[in-house]
Design goal:
Elements (H helix, E strand, L loop, with lengths): L2 H16 L2 E2 L10 E3 L2 E3 L9 H17 L7 E5 L7 E5 L2 H6 L18
Antiparallel strand pairs: 1-2, 2-3, 4-5
Length: 116
């Protein structure tokens, strides 16, 4: 499969999983997928980084041990001296989609001193 066909297929599948629509590549800055209030950039690689896959697997094991309602999430913190930490949340697409309507997503602000 040609490279362009591969990423277009991924964008279509992710749009379907999130109940959204794929936006055609127009050459202008725009999301690949719009789903509710989510503006999604889709990045396609042959395999995700092994350390990230391992972290997701660990989160899934730990969540399963916690109980059936627990949602496995990996939180990444990019920390550089003198700068505010950049925090990311990663979870499987199927897990994310199962959480319900993306419109229910809310912004969470973290206090730089406490991380809460």
């Amino acid at each position: 499969m040609a490279s362009a066909a591969r990423w277009k297929r991924q964008e279509r599948e992710i749009a379907a999983a999130l109940g959204g629509v794929r936006l055609p590549n127009s050459g202008r800055g725009q999301p690949d997928v719009i789903a509710g209030n989510l503006a999604v950039q889709v990045k396609t690689r042959a395999t995700p980084p092994a350390w990230l896959t391992a972290a997701l697997n660990e989160a899934a094991r730990d969540a399963a041990a916690t109980g059936p309602e627990a949602v496995p999430v990996v939180a990444l913190s990019g920390v550089t001296a003198g700068r505010k930490a950049r925090r990311l949340v990663v979870l499987d697409l199927a897990t994310f989609a199962a959480q319900g309507d993306p419109m229910m997503a809310r912004a969470v602000s973290c206090d730089a001193d406490t991380g809460i």
